[in-house]
Amino acid sequence: MSTEVYLVRHGETMFNQLNKVQGWCDSPLTVKGIDDLKRTANALAQVHFDNMYSSDLKRAIDTVHLMKNANLVSKIGKIKKLPEFREVFFGSFEGDDINETWDQVAVAAGIGHEDDVRNIINTVGIYNFREATKKADPRHLAENKEELDDRMVRAIEVLHELTKNEKRVLLVSHGDFIKTLSIKYWNKSDGLHDIPFPDNGSVTRGLLHDDGKFEIIDYNMNAENL
């Protein structure tokens, strides 16, 4: 039996609004973020889920409870929090201006000043981009390719173990983590170049097969497309 996984990106937060780097650091959902999530929650209100899960960061936990409370056809108990599905960790850049951060990463990647993250990734590739992020971080704490890839594999393994008897689950995670997971597991990605960043409150659908193989089948769907 395969398990259908609805990966929901949390709602807009204050740091999203202020254009700040937000990985393992946290900030509260905005009014707009909550309103957007209500549209997603209403679109999923008649979809039966055997369980719901969340990253262990508060913005994701707040999001999953909105999904749970709006659902009319599922009986969900206590939400299990999965740290493996946290956002990508950006080390010393946490809380900094996004464009200034990407400019430093581009310089570390050897391509000069550039603050458009898509251009950087498409120039050097997603893995070199992660290495450059760690290199640019003054304390070298940011997750690099190997660290993030290991965590993604572990996340899928943990989810596979938890959902063996579940046909459909909802899991709230984060934009860069969902995007990087999709670069790795979506057949419309070449595994190297960038793909559009998932919107706040969007749904990315995956299948987790009996043998543990994971694949993304729908990416970045908004409430109107569900």
By DSSP (H or I, 4+ residues per run), the number of helices equals 8
CA-CA gap between termini: 23 Å
DSSP helix fraction: 25-40%
Q: Please report which band the strand proportion falls in: under 5%, 5-15%, 15-25%, 25-35%, 35-45% or over 45%.
A: 5-15%
Pick out the low-confidence regions: none
Number of strands: 6
Coarse shape? globular
What topology, given as strand order, has the largest sheet? 3-2-4-1-5-6
Query: Mind summarizing the main beta sheet?
Result: 6 strands, mixed
Rg over alpha carbons: 17 Å
* Helix/strand class: alpha/beta
Please tell me the overall pLDDT.
98
Along the chain, the helix and strand elements come as EHHEHEHHHHEHEE
Structure in words:
With 226 residues, the protein is an alpha/beta fold. Helix content is 39%, strand content 15%. It contains eight helices and six strands; from the N terminus they run βααβαβααααβαββ. The chain has helices at 14-17, 31-43, 58-70, 98-108, 117-124, 126-136, 145-162, 175-185; strands at 3-9, 51-54, 80-81, 168-173, 203-208, 214-221. A six-stranded mixed sheet has the order 3-2-4-1-5-6. Strand 2 (51-54), helix 3 and strand 3 (80-81) form a beta-alpha-beta unit. The mean pLDDT is 98.
